[in-house]
Amino acid sequence: MKRMTLTPLAAAIGYLFYFSGHVIFAVIVTPVYIAMSPFPGLRHRFIHGIFRWYVFFLSRRYLPFLGVYRVREISGLEQARSAGPAVYVVNHRSRMDGPLILSAVPDAAVIIKAAYGRNILYSGFVKHLDFISVEAGSLGSLSTAVQRAQGVLAAGRNVIVFPEGTRSVTGRLLPFRDIAFRLARSADVPVVPVVLQSDLPFMAKRPGSIFPPRTINFTLRFLEPVRLQEKEPLAALVERVERAIATQLRELDKGTVWEVKP
After folding, report:
1. CB-based burial, 95-126: b 16+ in 10 Å, e otherwise
2. β 158-161/108-113 pair status
3. Which pTM value belongs to this model?
4. Beta-carbon count within 10 A of 254 CB
5. Which of 44, 141, 153, 259 is the most exposed place for a label (fewest CB within 10 A)?
6. What's the rounded Cα separation, in Å, for the pair 195 and 83?
7. CA-CA distance, 215 to 208, in Å (whole number)?
8. Hey, which residues does 134 pair with through a beta bridge?
9. Distance between CA atoms of 205 and 156, rounded to whole angstroms?
10. Is 170 exposed, middle or buried (0-12, 13-18, 19+ CB in 10 A)?
């Protein structure tokens, strides 16, 4: 059978499922959620299981089947997982970054902007799943987010953070915020730098990224876990991780529209 290629129709079908998926998820889960009210532990595991399945199906099966993109490389994951509970720090260019990283690290909480947490579609995720909302500039919100994330790490799971805070428009990384690194220090867990790159912009803050001209190639690289060294300033750890991700991105971006010319 000939593999499907990207067309406006295929992309439109993909977007329809992507944006309606939250509603479909809620419709399926809500009745079961109510029925399982007397069994909160079982209910929580059920919702998490359904969500993990949905994210994997959407990002690793459905959209690649349509020919929208393919994941050509996932490397370093086994080494990253062997480090135990960790804070995964990921660069951010596409709206697909979240589903893609969650498909590889399903046992993880995600720190998101409070603006998303107030969205009716995401508010249920914040309430019933491990989506941790944080308001930039609010010490109270930051403290609550760190406490929730520490609980996730103490339970043996992971936390995913996009330290740039928003999608980068160019090939250059935006300045990293330090919440991920403060969390790693307080919980005494490693930081796993993660590089997420595509050879064409997709669902990015760039013209033409809604309907790209061809199938896109995604690369997902998990770099060696790092820890805060004795007496090392937190800013030095931030710089080390940022430099490691930037170095890999420059290599992968060569010959693509993301390449930063000197």
Report:
1. ebbbbbbbbbbbebbbbbbeebbeeeebebbb
2. parallel
3. 0.88
4. 10
5. 259
6. 17
7. 13
8. 113
9. 35
10. exposed
What gap in Å lies between CA 19 and CA 26, rounded to an integer?
Answer: 13
Tens digits of residue pLDDT in 194-248: 999 999 999 999 988 888 888 899 999 999 999 999 889 999 999 999 999 999 9
Q: Is 89 helix (H, G, I), strand (E, B) or coil?
A: strand
Cα separation, 214 vs 155, whole angstroms: 42
Question: d(Cα 252, Cα 229) in Å, to the nearest integer?
Answer: 29
**234 to each of 40, 189, 212, how far by Cα in Å?**
39, 14, 39
Pick the CATH number of 69-253 from 3.40.1130.10, 3.40.50.300, 3.40.1390.20, 3.30.565.10: 3.40.1130.10
Q: Which of 58, 21, 20, 25 is nearest to 128 (CA)?
A: 25
